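Tokens for chain A. Residues wanted.
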């Protein structure tokens, strides 16, 4: 009886967790495909071009040229991906202009690095949802579970816009190896030069 009483007293002294807060839960396990070459960037670009061309298939050919603009993410990947999108659009017969135009395909890329619980990985990058399943080569290797979770990702978004209206929008997440992060890191803006100091002239009076 004394033991049971002490156990009851001990339990009553512990603070119970709040009942109105959500309990963290893990996501269901998922798999990702590897991306280890610029050819895989081209696959993303081809998928974007296919969606844009499908949206514009009923427009008069050549009447509304597209201005493809890298808006955010001035990196090696951002510049290369933008040029690949232009190539794939032209291949599909979509008119593309090098001048400013009302119809713009705006490209956004952003490097995201998760530091909490990071584990070193040397397996190369992985595509999360940037490529449709029917466009993923069967030869792409699967991740090595022993290598740990990848902690570096890139968000890729394209937005076909005209007169403040979004006509087509695509978004994808690409996980990459930490060693490849420099390819996706935006270049730092050039510092604003400081104004030159004013020159003063002195006249010697005899």
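Reply:
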């Amino acid at each position: 009886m004394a033991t049971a009483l002490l156990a009851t007293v001990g339990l009553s002294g512990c603070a119970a967790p709040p009942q109105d807060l959500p309990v963290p839960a893990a996501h269901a396990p998922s798999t990702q495909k590897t991306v280890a070459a610029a050819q895989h960037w081209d696959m993303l670009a081809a998928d974007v071009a296919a969606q844009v061309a499908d949206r514009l298939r009923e427009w008069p050919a050549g009447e509304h040229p597209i201005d493809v603009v890298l808006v955010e993410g001035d990196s090696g990947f951002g510049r290369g991906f933008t040029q690949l999108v232009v190539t794939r659009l032209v291949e599909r017969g979509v008119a593309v202009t090098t001048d400013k135009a009302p119809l713009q395909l705006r490209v956004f890329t952003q490097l995201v690095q998760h530091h909490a619980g990071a584990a070193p990985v040397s397996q190369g990058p992985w595509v999360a949802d940037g490529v449709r399943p029917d466009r993923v080569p069967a030869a792409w290797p699967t991740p090595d579970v022993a290598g740990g979770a990848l902690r570096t990702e890139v968000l890729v978004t394209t937005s076909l816009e005209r007169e403040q209206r979004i006509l087509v929008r695509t978004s994808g997440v690409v996980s990459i190896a930490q060693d490849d992060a420099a390819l996706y890191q935006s270049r730092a803006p050039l510092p604003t030069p400081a104004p030159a100091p004013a020159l003063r002239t002195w006249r010697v009076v005899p």
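Residues 31-136+149-184 form one domain. The first strand starts at residue 33 and ends at 34.
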